[in-house]
Amino acid sequence: MRRREFITLIGGAVASSASWPLAARAQQERVRRICVLMGYAENDPEAQIRFTAFKQALLVLGWSEDRNLLIDLRWTSGDVNRASTFAKELVALHPEVIMSNTTPATAAAQRETKTIPIVFTVVSDPVGAGFVESLPRPGGNITGFINLEPTIGGKWLELLKEIAPRVTRVTVMFNPETAPYAEYYLQSLEAAATKYGVKTLTSHVRSENEIEAIISALGREPGGGLVAMTDGFMTVHRKSVIDLTKQHKVPLMFFVSSGAREGALISYGVDISDILRRSASYVDQILRGAKPAELPVQIPTKFELDVNLKTAKALSIDVPASILFRADEVIE
To answer: What pTM was estimated for this model as a whole?
Structure first.
């Protein structure tokens, strides 16, 4: 063998032996499977932002879809039947963790498994819904992140009355199938209504036609206002709700900041992208061996108040300085 051929052969062998451990480690890294059941519509840009926040937080924690993570994703579009169908599909895949988004999605997942860990997000009353025994001690295969406290119902009405003092009648709108926890918020809202001399009416909606009928009726007489209850159905149909309240001159309080950015008069609630971002930490801990029963349910930490001055002008409302001073965002 010639000297040059010998050196080339030895060099190639050394290079191969040096790269082998890295290749072997890459091959040996186990791909972990998680499933995600989102309560929103797939074509909703805001919903995509929220899901992306969850994935980016996982990436920071070391979980990447191109290396060690497989994500199976379904979108329910605020439909309880779709939630049930997709929950069955996802549980049949035998994931290591399920991240469920909204109360109906979590309820659907809970019905399908008592063993696969579930991390819920944007759930209002996990104790009342039977998901956990208590917030500090979940006690089963489910834990997660609630989105609002029960007293926020009163805050919605208080803020709506402050920005639109002429409001004397308030309709609270939600779908009872996707917001079975409504009473959780209604008690404080009705207490605030009594305090401010406002009459309240609860309106159940299951279709866009019902949404239109209720808002158009509300706008026929002066003094009407609308509170959109935190609800996956209302999230999916928020464009119709917002457009109709603007058309019929009805001041609208929405429960997340995207509502005011898209045309509602005012919104007050949590940063849902932040909740999904935080939920990645629990998925990470469970993949590394933690049990849901050991992870206390987390309460929201970041609330946002947003006001749309364009809508206020269209409604002939002069927004009080007290509201503008406290607002996190003013849309002009």
So the answer is: 0.88
Q: What per-residue confidence (pLDDT) applies to 195?
A: 96
Three-state SS at 144: strand
pLDDT under 50: residue ranges of the chain: 1-27
Which residue intervals of the chain bear CATH 3.40.50.2300?
Answer: 31-148+271-302, 152-270+304-331
- How many angstroms separate the CA atoms of 119 and 126, rounded? 11
The CATH fold of domain 152-270+304-331: Rossmann fold (3.40.50)
The tokens for 262 are 């898209």
**Beta strands of the chain (E only): which ranges?**
32-38, 69-75, 97-101, 118-123, 142-146, 169-174, 199-204, 224-228, 252-254, 266-270, 303-308, 329-331
Q: Tell me, what's the pLDDT at 301?
A: 83
| Three-class SS state of 55 | helix
Alpha-helical runs (H) found in 142-182: 152-163
* Structure tokens belonging to residue 225: 């206002």
- Both tokens of 91, joined, read 């549980």
What single letter denotes the amino acid at residue 197? G
Measured from the Cβ of residue 302, the count of other Cβ atoms closer than 10 Å reads 13
Q: How far, in Å, CA of 227 to CA of 153, rounded?
A: 9
Fold type of domain 31-148+271-302: Rossmann fold (3.40.50)
* Distance separating alpha carbons of residues 299 and 302, to the nearest angstrom: 10
Nearest to 236 by CA among 185, 283, 177, 276: 177
DSSP three-state, residue 200: strand
Pair of tokens at residue 202: 């609860």
Q: What is the pLDDT of residue 149?
A: 86
Q: Could you read off the pLDDT of 97-140 as tens digits, one per residue?
A: 999 999 999 999 999 999 999 999 999 999 999 999 999 999 99
